[in-house]
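Thread: quick sanity check before group meeting

JM: Hey all, I'm pulling together slides for Thursday and realized we never actually wrote out the predicted structure for the chain we discussed last week. Dropping the sequence here so it's in one place. If anyone has concerns about the input, flag it before I start.
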Amino acid sequence: MRIINIKTYILGVAVLFSASSCIGDFEEFNQQKVGGPENFYADFKAIVDPMKAMQRGFQSDYQLATNLNADMFSGMFSTASQFNGGTNNLTYLMMDGWNNRIIARQRDTFNNSIIIDDVAKYNYPGIDFTATFAVKKILKILTAARVSDRHGPVVYSKYDTPNANGVTDFDSQQDAYNNFINDLTAAISDLQKVQNTPATQNVEDKAVVKRSDLIYGGDIAKWAKLANSLKLRFALRMSYADPAKSKKYAEEVFASSAGLISDNTDNALISVGQHELSFIIYSWGDCSIGAPIMAYMNGFKDPRLSSYANTAKDPATFIDGKPQYIGIRQGIDLINGQPTYGGYSQPAARAASGDYFSGTDGKFKLFTAAETWFLKAEAALRGYSGAGDVQANYQTGIAQSFGEWGKSSDVANYLADNVSTEAPYIDPKNAANNILAGDSQLSTITIAWNNSDSNEKKLERIITQKWLALYPDGPEAWAEQRRTGYPVLFKVRKNDSGGLIDTNQMIRRIPFTNDTKNSTFNYAQAVQQLGGSDNGATKLWWDKK
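JM (edit): ok, ran it. Output follows.
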């Protein structure tokens, strides 16, 4: 294999960084590599390392980029910490210095993608990296979708092609979603093409995928399943905004030979080493379990409860001297903060395959089999061809989730429960936060499938169980809650938005921050594409119900 002199590569990337206003310093990136230029290129580290960085980026700067926005708004998490004196995102005062991390982390990932493109072009001419680029494309789509689901318009298809004046255009969320689906379709085709080649072909390409893959260890067929499963996720996301395309795209998924993530052995979990939530929760005490998810799981007598949370340590929360599972309600007066609420339940993630929140062997959850089956259940409810039977899909979704968390022996009794509903919320520190039986903020949905229910009630049942199964993926859970209205969540008691966000409507999106407004991104265009004011009340394109 021909190795081009490293100076040529550095010059090419230096020009690239200047032209595209990339974040970071390539010289520092290069100096971090072990060995000289020959080793750096001979073993593909120049591609492998940024590919790994793209995967690890999903949890980078996690507290500000994700935990203190989408995680909290999903109802899965909360906090006892009085950030900014208790007036912050959780009380609908949008924190510019927190939320700017959302696009900043996207920039990191997309800049790594540009580095890979440039390395391949200048240092590995003639080598076919079809599968590597397909995997990279999937990672970019996942990253951009998580940004779009919080902000709306997103710089995606034009990220590395700014206009002549240096300004980079946004994709509207509608265009972005259609681009995501088209690009996933192309990625599936490319992955299957490489998958079907003899072992003696695409050797370098397959080697790079294997060395850089923190999810599937180089299994190209599983990457194709992930891409097809994501296509189904995005198809259902547009079910209210563009029903015809939603149906079309979903039916393409069901007809695809790529298959879907239908079993927990295919789950997309990034091996991240230390999960950042391990210190956010257990060292800093800044993340607690959310009141809504505990209310549902307590009411359902959900066997996964001990996998999702630790019992509270504060004796004030005990019942008859026994520790309980209790979350913190979002958007409340935290009184003295951690001294008052720090003894409530902490989040956990003890899966059958290991502790997702481990400080040494953590896993970052991207997509699991349970989600596939709940997507199929909703697709079947909507009458999409190839989706299968709605009840069977719903029950399989629950069974797969129970398998993920090591509770398979309990699933039959859970599926048969046609009585249990969400439990009332009692806050022993402040009765004003209580949500008692009969309150409209408590759902009356049960677990057992009932064919005689209305389609809307069936949808609530599907999405409520899907939400429970998505844990701890707050961004996806919040997106689905906004799209469907389910599960029913608790409203904030303290609304510091200055009237911008309606308490009953709840927050719909994260506004763009000053970093974006003052960047070379076309902010004026993004606001026009929003179709409303750049605040937390404006609904996203897919939020049409």
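AS: nice. The CA atoms of residues 421 and 444 lie 6 Å apart. The chain has one domain: 43-530.
JM: adding both to the slides.
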